[in-house]
Amino acid sequence: MVDTSESQIEMDKHPSCFTIEQVASRTGLTRRTLRYYEEVGLLPAAERTEGNYRRYSEEDIQRLEHIKAYKNLLGFSLHDIRVLLATDQEREVIKEAYRQETDIETKIAQLAQTDVLIEQQLQLVDQKIAGLLEMKASLQERLARHAETRKRLQDS
Amino acid sequence: MVDTSESQIEMDKHPSCFTIEQVASRTGLTRRTLRYYEEVGLLPAAERTEGNYRRYSEEDIQRLEHIKAYKNLLGFSLHDIRVLLATDQEREVIKEAYRQETDIETKIAQLAQTDVLIEQQLQLVDQKIAGLLEMKASLQERLARHAETRKRLQDS
DNA sequence: AACATCTTTAACGTTAACGTCAAAGTTAAG
DNA sequence: CTTAACTTTGACGTTAACGTTAAAGATGTT
Question: Which residue intervals define the domain HTH merR-type in the entry (chains A, B) (predicted)?
Fold first, then answer.
């Protein structure tokens, strides 16, 4: 690791071929963290070169940004984030089960099942928003009181 | 631990004398957690009885509720919370200095100083709210797509 | 006084989310 | 072809935030 960005291989700006180091420096995460996220299933297993080196795509980077936001801004655990970001993988799996399932009733039941999960997360998110709005209101109230005081002080 | 609330000692409803078990059940934290918070300096060392038992006050409970909010709603680490609560106390200190100050110009300057702290916290809260709203929208989008699919399945 | 409950401190265990190090293979560059 | 830089997979180490157990003392009840 000596050059932070473009040291290796390809001169081509092909959109879906970043080395682990490039992804690391662009996301602000470490290489270890990227491998760890793959290990625990947060990131779909990256493609490999013939030499077995990982190659990441733009979508991977997008996903990593999402993960960062969920983790740092919202304080979710990686486990919770995996549930929240169940988009790609879950959608694939469910769609597979869909194709193999001929009974429409069963399909609808499967949909409802994932909906329950999503609604649980929605509730949690709403709770957090409510708490944050409360906190925000109380902080603004303080600022307002200070403004009042300031005005009184200046009228003297 | 057999009775959750009033098993021990005092019949008197004195406002600032709760056992560790009472505080635990009222805050939803564990006794271990209360001792731990004291250990790491999040909570001021509780008063003791002659028998060396901890006794908590109303203010302690208030502070614990604050800590819980910071931790669960905002996902702050205990270390960050200690800093945040310190700035709260710092504000108190500044307020004290404020009362002793007679010069109006100085008073206004001091007000502005605490406002900076408050606005920093407000910014953080706003960031978190924005992130949560984004997440909420994406979850609702998924639900909508599922509803679409459900409709298509039923029309067949 | 005996007893069941509560409390104390001390110390070791646990889980998540990585950090760090080692041994070995890969790649671009000289 | 050699070499420096990059990568791989283990595997063990670390920190935060507690959980759990143990040994001993305290308290109110019988």
Answer: 17-87
